[in-house]
Give the backbone structure.
Amino acid sequence: MLKSKGYPVKGYYLNLHFAHQLGMPVYNKLCEKRFLIGEWLFSHLLFGENPKNQDYLNHFDSYMEIVCQSIDRPREFLTDVKTKMVPEFLQWAVEAGNWGQYDVIGFSSTFNQNVASVTLAKLIKEKHPSVKIMFGGSNFESEMGLEYFRVFPWIDFVVPGEAEGVLVPLIESLENGGKPPKGVVYRKGGEIVFEDNHEMLNDFSENAVPDYDDFFEQLQQIDPHSPLLENPIILYETARGCWWGEKHHCTFCGLNANTMEFRSKPIEQVQADVAYLAQRYDSFRFRFVDNILELKYIEGIFGEMARNNFDLQFFIEVKSNLTKQQIKSLAHGGANVIQPGIESFSLNQLMAMDKGVRPLQNILCMKWAMYYGIEVNWNILIGFPGETNEDYRNQIDLIRLLFHLPPPECVGDLYLERFSPYFSRPEEYGVTIKAPGEAYSYVYDSPDIDLFKIAYDFEFTSENEIDPELRSELLHTAQEWKERHQSDDIPYLIFTKSMNFVTIYDDRTAGNTVKKRLEGPSAWTLLFCNESAKSMDQIKEHIRELGVEEESAAEKAVQQLEDMGILYGEKGKYLTLALPHNANL
Ligand code: SF4
């Protein structure tokens, strides 16, 4: 943005150096781990003298076992990284950029980048006191940014919201000695000044196409053989906010803070930017970083890609209530991985979390995504307020029928996230917020910091009590599902169709492959409910049209298919679970 306004700007990707030093596989694994481990590893210079910070490894002992196993390193390795490697890296980093040549240095802090960024900022400020230090990014959103600003005096400016509207005016104010614009936190005579500007980015036309030149140049210098250089994945933002969340905020979702209103780029801009980025960085692979896909892109972007037979590939996040036709358009347009926010196969839980989808829609999405060769990334979330043993039982029984579909990556406990309805209206859901997430006090070990103000996740209790055996059964079932798909015995449930019969091949249960021939109403029902769910009245009508007058024929057919576990019924609608063998649908 600043570059496109004529300001000289350089981006530094110091994390590339650190990842290269640590080894990319270890770095990537640590990035995914819980309990702020990435933050703790960088916390030695700021908080390493303090007792809880020193006790981190002991306190999270059993989890550290898992971490060490996953990276195949002993526990001492983590201590060495924290107390030796990271301080040396930071000392290197403070010399690496010749920082004194800049007027302003901005840090964009997201996920576990916070302590690293704040510590480097401190070291830079100590060496170059005249350089202005600016922070933004999701770790500095709202109250969190204000608190970090209060406790870290070496930060000169914080933008605790969307920065597009204030960045250029802020730099102009520094040039001409004027007052920083609204929407920026700064100090004046020792006082902290902040006036919210309540402005959201609504017009993307000013947004320049992302500039990754510095990233690829630095990566090339650090590791010319890096796999990241070969057909790299280009990150691209098409939209802000969430069109579902602005009407029905999913109760657990802490994304988007105060900017939930959905705003998307015009189709022409996305097309032009993608074309430019593919050419400039010689890549066919894109990851749209949006929370949810703008529906008009299905035809406008992916339809256009398909009509032109382009070979670009896209990762996208979608809502799962897509039709078969929409999934087909996405697949033919290059969407090869989707994240549909499935979260659960419990009807009650999906309703309680205001997700706006039911298990049936989740199944339909996974079935057609699989059919069209789209990888589906999803998890099961548990630990919701109000969940019951019956919800667990129903979910376990249902997912046993879905073993032929893509398995979840994991079953994870709900995080109570800042900005979510559980956080802002806990009493409505029977939730009691107890404390900031457990790791905060072990990382940011300082009495000066109000951890409630900086935490993104929180410890909580709710009234429900789930039978531990049911919980364990759910975990085991999901694990079995995953293992089957990683084995040579990948489960399947398909049907082949002839003129007057249908054959089912069912290998969902290991060691029990079933082949079954269906004719008449049961075969017709299976075919009729294949593309989308149908009501009993629609099924009856269909069977009558095919010449069977008997009133109960449809009900019997539905019952037979349900008993076989190849038709799923929910709230009077029925969907065939089996995938068609025919490849031309
Ligand atoms: S979970 Fe997804 S669909 Fe729900 S509000 Fe958040 S971003 Fe939107």
Remarks:
- Residues 231-485 form a domain with the pyruvate-formate lyase- activating enzyme fold (CATH 3.80.30.20).
